[in-house]
Amino acid sequence: MTQQAEPLRSGWRPPLARRTWNSGVWAHFAWAALLPGLILLGWQLYTAYGEVNPILLPSPAAIAEALGTLTASGELAVQLGVSLGRAALGTLYGCAAALALGTLVGLSRLAAKLLDPSMQLLRLTPSLAIAPLIILWFGFGETSKIVIIATGAFFPLYLATIQSLRGVDGRLTEVARVLQFGRAQQLSRLLLPGAMPGLLSGLRLAMAYGWLSLVVAELLGAQAGIGYLMSHAQTNGHPAIIFVGVLVFAVMGKLIDLLVATVEKRVLRWRDSYAG
Amino acid sequence: MSAALLEIENLNKSFRTDSKSVQALRGIELDVREGEFVTVIGPSGCGKSTLLRIIAGLERGETGTVKLSGEPIRGPGIDKGFIFQEPRLFPWLTVEKNIAADLSLRKPEVRSKVDELIRLVKLEGFAKAYPRELSGGMAQRVAIARALLRKPKILLLDEPFGALDAFTRAHMQEVLLDIWKHNGTTMILVTHDIDEAVFLGSRIMILKPRPGEIRGQIAVELSYPRKKASTAFQEYRYRVLREFERIDELAWGESGAGI
């Protein structure tokens, strides 16, 4: 304990202790799975012994069987690939536009006065209301779907970009003035990292909204993708496949969110208060 | 005697709040020679921070001139190092990157200077730590190293140890004196702590509030390192206190109300 006696280190605090991961994660998972598990069990019993039309409510076993068949035939992978590709492309365009416009509005007062009011008006228009217009302009092809997804992903990140750039600590901006930061350093050492927490939570929202918009886009008419699989099953009377689609949308949505959350944790390691 | 590094002549500054105008500084005259350690002491609200911010170029005086090496000050810059009351480190950068700030550690000359400064401010072993892992005193030492890397002509310190506990503060004062002896950097330190002003300053400027005016200066003719418990030290303390009592009596006499 000689280090304690050293005057220099008297005020030093050790880094925050790392959480014990494994047991925590499994316990968390067990608790989270408890309720869905019970519902699933009740559902299976109800469909097996109750009087219920399997066209309206297929049993979990039937859904699992449909999932198995679709997976084995490779159909699910193909449709999922199409959906993921679409979502990725649309979200990418939406996020790129959001970062560019958000940076402009966040850093320039003129741009804020000129652009932001119109953006706010567009933001409050429901995407389902614009979707028919987009289809009218871009047709039923791939373009309209990408545009619908991009619009969905755009606004959360646009707003987050503006707010987080404006929220950069003014006291640090003063330090940058005293140290005579150049333009490039101001962006890379002050504004970007200062805005990063807000940008990442904006990105997380943007990806969630992009994924939600994918459902809208595909259910409005598509020749491929999970949404297509679902509407096709609807017209051909395969309710189990619709459930498989819902399941895939939910699980993929959660996985995407988990991915961004993991990146967030990595990038924001420097933050004291960050707790997931 | 060498020519003054910093020359302030008849500096005035007032702030407008709503409809009122409050004079913060009036007729400030101050010359600081190269290598001096000037402490400015006064109660809160006496305009001492404003004075320092004007020297730093972060604010502008209304009338009067402020010159550094004969050149009027036009804005903030690395020749005028500034230590704020809070360390103001970039929380996303490690200690060494905070010191380098806009400079690249990949340049060998930056690398070696940063390493040297980390030793000077006694932070060996913490180069890769993040600010959240540092105590207040350590963080303030990083801020000092960050300013020193730019080889400022003058280092301005705005109540730099005000937020620290008494023991850490005493330690930081010693670190600062070491740096001053080692580098010879000209320093102006603003404080409301009489002990600190006497312990550090080769000259103490006494500022009275409302409006901020220099009401006297005391040259401290004690060799460093100074002993706070010594009689000579205590005598300087009394002289500073007596100045403030005189100011208080004047204030009572002028307006009939003290602070």
TrEMBL record, chain A:
Which positions make up the signal peptide?
none
Which Gene3D superfamilies does this UniProt record tie to the protein? MetI-like
Domain of life where this protein originates: Bacteria
Transmembrane stretches in the record are: 21-46, 91-112, 121-140, 146-165, 206-228, 240-261
Q: Which residues form a coiled coil?
A: none
> Species name for this entry?
Paenibacillus sabuli
Record-annotated ABC transmembrane type-1 domain positions: 76-260
**Highest classification ranks of the organism:** Bacteria, Bacillati, Bacillota, Bacilli, Bacillales
How does the protein's chain sit in the membrane according to the entry? Multi-pass membrane protein
Where does it live in the cell?
Cell membrane
UniProt lists the family membership as follows: Belongs to the binding-protein-dependent transport system permease family.
Annotated GO biological process: alkanesulfonate transmembrane transport
Q: Which GO terms describe its cellular component?
A: plasma membrane
One Pfam entry for this protein is BPD_transp_1
Q: Supply the name of the protein.
A: ABC transporter permease
Q: Which UniProt keywords apply?
A: Cell membrane, Membrane, Transmembrane, Transmembrane helix, Transport
The record's PANTHER family line, in alphabetical order, gives: ALIPHATIC SULFONATES TRANSPORT PERMEASE PROTEIN SSUC-RELATED (PTHR30151:SF38), ALKANE SULFONATE ABC TRANSPORTER-RELATED, MEMBRANE SUBUNIT (PTHR30151)
UniProtKB/TrEMBL annotation, chain B:
Family matches, as CDD domains: ABC_NrtD_SsuB_transporters
Which Gene3D superfamilies does this UniProt record tie to the protein? P-loop containing nucleotide triphosphate hydrolases (3.40.50.300)
Top-rank taxon:
Bacteria
Q: Where is the ABC transporter domain?
A: 6-234
Q: Which residues form the signal peptide?
A: none
Q: Which InterPro entries does the UniProt entry name for this protein? A: AAA+_ATPase, ABC_transporter-like_ATP-bd, ABC_transporter-like_CS, ABC_transporter_ATP-bind, P-loop_NTPase
Q: Name one Pfam family in it.
A: ABC_tran
What GO terms are given for molecular function?
ATP binding; ATP hydrolysis activity
State the PROSITE patterns in the record.
Answer: ABC_TRANSPORTER_1, ABC_TRANSPORTER_2
Instruction: Tell me the keywords, alphabetical order.
Output: ATP-binding, Nucleotide-binding, Transport
Concerning PANTHER family, the annotation shows: ALIPHATIC SULFONATES IMPORT ATP-BINDING PROTEIN SSUB, TAURINE IMPORT ATP-BINDING PROTEIN-RELATED
Q: Name the chain's protein.
A: ABC transporter ATP-binding protein
Q: Which organism is it from?
A: Paenibacillus sabuli
